[in-house]
Amino acid sequence: MNYETLLLHEAIRLLIISIRQQRRHTQQSLSLESGISRQYISQMECGKRIPSLDTLSQLAIALKTSMGSLMSEMDRIYQHLFWQSKTDQVDKNDDFSARNAAETHNPSLEYIHRAGGLDKP
């Protein structure tokens, strides 16, 4: 599974939690309102299950919102996660560059760092 798909799954998970809490539903009350089992709602919120479009439609109806609004909010969450991950990646690269610059005076340490440690040839 590629990284963008994993981000999408995380966005769906966060969407379900967020909108349920905003509408002041418990998993049980949303289950009763939507006809989706509480266990399945829990599994979606834990990221163990990914809802189908039919399930998202049932949730939208129960939460008194449209599929368009649900998709728009999911896209907002996805974009936030995507750009947050890009920012984190840049920060990690900056840390590695700073560490490399500090170690350039010792070529053997630089080689060990690039090789991934002492155990690798």
TrEMBL record:
A GO cellular component annotation in the UniProt record: cytosol
Record domain HTH cro/C1-type: where: 16-70
Keyword Ligase: no
Matches recorded under Gene3D superfamilies: lambda repressor-like DNA-binding domains (1.10.260.40)
Alphabetical keyword list: DNA-binding
Keyword Lipid metabolism part of the UniProt annotation: no
Cross-referenced CDD domains: HTH_XRE (cd00093)
One example GO MF annotation: DNA-binding transcription factor activity
InterPro entries linked to this entry: Cro/C1-type_HTH, Lambda_DNA-bd_dom_sf, TransReg_Diox_bact_type
Name recorded for this polypeptide: DNA-binding protein
Organismal lineage: Bacteria, Pseudomonadati, Fibrobacterota, Fibrobacteria, Fibrobacterales
